[in-house]
Amino acid sequence: MEVARLYRVDNGSSLKAFVDVIVNGTVLVKGVRVVESKNGLFVAMPKQQAKNGRWYETVSLLSDEAKQELQETVLDAFNA
Q1: Are 31 and 18 in contact (CB under 8 A)?
Q2: How far is 3 from 10, CA to CA, in rounded Å?
């Protein structure tokens, strides 16, 4: 997993960056977000709003190992 693009957001909100990630050199995931909460920074997957007004992830990682790798990769790039 590698970061293709990182765009920092500086508007005073909890959203800190948008990130595009390449998975295994074959899939580009656009719109991963770096968000700041009271417990620190975390990585959130892209979401899309449905007609019912609820938000749903458009990409989901199925294994805990993949989620951990994404978190580490994105936050390392953000902090660099």
Answers
A1: yes
A2: 20
Q: What is the per-residue pLDDT across 47-68, written as a single tens digit (0 to 9) for each? A: 999 999 999 999 888 999 999 9
CATH code, domain with 28: 3.30.1120.40
Count of structural domains, the chain: 1
Single-letter code of the amino acid located at 51: K
- Residue 75 domain-assigned (yes or no): no
Assess if residue 76 is contained within a domain.
no
Please tell me whether the overall predicted TM-score, pTM, comes out greater than 0.90 for this model: no
Closest of 32, 12, 14, 33 to residue 23, by C-alpha: 32
Q: In degrees to the nearest 10, what's the CA dihedral of 59, 61, 67, 70?
A: -50
Cα Rg, the chain, nearest whole Å: 13
